[in-house]
Amino acid sequence: MSLYGAVEAGGTKFVVAVGEKAEEPREIERIETSNQPAETMAEVIRYFERRGPLAALGVATFGPVDFASGRITTTPKLPWQNFPLKASLEQALHVKVGFDTDVNGAALAEARCGAGRGLEDLVYFTIGTGIGGGALCGGRLVHGLMHSEMGHLLVRRAPEEVEGFQGVCPYHGDCLEGMASGPSMQERWGVPADQLPPEHAAWRVEADYLAQACVNVACVLSPQAVVLGGGVMGQAHLVERVRRRAKELCNGYLPLPRIETPGLKYPGLSGALLLAMEAVG
Ligand code: ADP
Ligand code: ZN
Q1: Per-residue pLDDT tens for 205-250?
Q2: Which atom of ligand 1 lies at the shortest distance from residue 235's CA?
Q3: Among 12, 71, 83, 110, which one is most buried in terms of CB atoms within 10 A?
């Protein structure tokens, strides 16, 4: 069987792996995202050089990205702005590189071999330090003018929102990421999200925003499933709250997509392996 490489590129860490099957990334290693891209890339390249010839490499990356040039564009991580991530790997490793956003990769993986196995229409959100969303529509990852940026969906105030809370998105304040990311919970409630007990109002507020996101994507893309991943979804009670709230918000108007947590242990890495496989047909 052919060996594929996977890179999940993030603002704090790059995670690299190899694998023959998408659902089984192995030899997983973490590499710090340095302020000097050349340093990080040298480590990534060394990792793959040690693992023998790859049939192809897949990169599922933080963004925003420009698909035509394979570059990261306007990231607040300034040294990475305009960095030619795809070309630098192609040139150093002499392989074809499949390239997409981390959340598009995760959407692809969850649709092919995760919680939405077999579906052609699926949206994946990660709710962590930031919020991102990727979409598979009719079996194809959505690329338009650029790619989906569902973390910046505009949302309305939750009924139990703390008065005066303005949100933490540096661009919009109170967009989805501004109101529902891990850091927004810490800012609003004064403790890290993982220390808020399940009965805390924080989780009703959080579920409201995530439910708005699910209903909004149901209205726009009509996916069969929405998969919610990322650190904040580590709260086992949260997904059921989101389902209930989405039903209330929808008020019987539409059939709602299934709302699930990831079926894969490493949706981003599995996505990167699938992007590698797709790069060589
Ligand atoms: P990143 O988004 O940086 O890739 P994560 O998806 O792990 O990383 O998200 C980190 C965020 O998730 C932090 O804000 C953290 O407080 C929050 N988080 C991590 N674990 C939990 C948990 N079990 N419950 C709630 N929030 C959590
Ligand atoms: Zn925003």
Answers
A1: 999 999 999 999 999 999 999 999 999 999 999 999 999 999 999 9
A2: 24
A3: 110
